[in-house]
Amino acid sequence: MSSLKPYLQLTRPANVVTAFTDIFAGMAIVQFAFSDYNPALLLVSTLGLYAGGVVMNDVFDAKLDAIERPERPIPSGKVPLKSAAMLGISLLFLGILAAAMFSALSGMIAIIVAMLAVLYNRFAKHSRIFGPLTMGMCRGGNLILGMSVLPESLQQWSWIALFPIMYIGAITLISQDEVHGGKKTTLYIAALLYLVVLFSQVKLANEHGNLLYTLPFVLLHAWLIFRPLWNAMQNPIGPLIGKAVKAGVISLIVMNASWCVAFGLWPLALLVLALLPLSMLLAKVFAVT
Fold first, then answer.
1. Residue 285: which residues within 8 A CB-CB, separation 6 or more?
2. Tens digit of each residue's pLDDT (9 = 90 or more) over 180-225
């Protein structure tokens, strides 16, 4: 088990749980029915895509991590670089294959998400603009992957992917200052993007007649993300920024639960929310960033 743990660390297990909830939220938005659709292949797909993406992140950052984060599995020597690269490529391939087995449309979406993940890790990551945008598009694509269960509804609701793009873009923007500390301006921009997402969920919930049920989820999400962000605003040093990033990533589960209840699937919202303790537990064992 000790020899397996560094490989698991590369895949960020706590984050993978949040990716599962993207699929559930996407399915809820297009009003799927479990009796008609089994999401198992799409869950396998998002596992492969997300885990593969974060493994490739560490592969491409191996030289930089040797200086800034020598405790990570690759620079510490616990996982050989070639082995990590093979793991990342294999997981991305698994993600594409599983999606293609569900449908051709899902397979094409998975290919795009995989390409965006590699583009982010190899080229866009260190750009203040294209880094957050590309990473956000990966998460937006993951939500659309969930929506692909009902292709006829995908065109109607795919625009909602703009909100996870904003949300993840905000987190990615913050994370660029995680090692050396950052500027308050960046944190204020992230806060504004967070608010746009939260108010949009409230508005959509109201339009669907589900405002009363959605508000507790949105308020919980706001509390989870703004508390550490406020602390970072008061003192934008690396450790506090890291906590804001970690909270933002884990709280994706609550954001996705909010989408589920906003579109009237409150039992699924509770199921998604139930994954929060699991992700938080995994976050104590495995690094989130």
1. 13
2. 777 889 999 999 999 999 999 999 999 999 999 999 999 999 999 9
Residue 191 dihedral angles phi and psi, to the nearest 5°: -60, -40
Those residues whose C-beta lies under 8 Å from the C-beta of residue 103, and which sit 6 or more positions away, are 148, 151
**And the tokens for 35?**
């009796």
pLDDT 10s digits, 243-271: 999 999 999 999 999 999 999 999 999 99
Determine contact, residues 261/213, Cβ cutoff 8 Å. yes
- Domains of the chain and CATH, by start: 5-285 (1.10.357.140)
CA distances from 102 to 45, 199, 260 (A): 9, 34, 22
Tell me how far apart the alpha carbons of residues 192 and 165 are, in angstroms, rounded to a whole number. Answer: 14
pLDDT at 33: 72
- Residue 2: predicted pLDDT: 53
**What confidence tens digit (pLDDT) does each residue in 89-110 have?**
999 999 999 999 999 999 999 9
Cβ count near 262 (within 10 Å)? 30
Residue 113 confidence (pLDDT): 98
pLDDT for 177 beyond 90: no
Tokens of 251: 């709280």
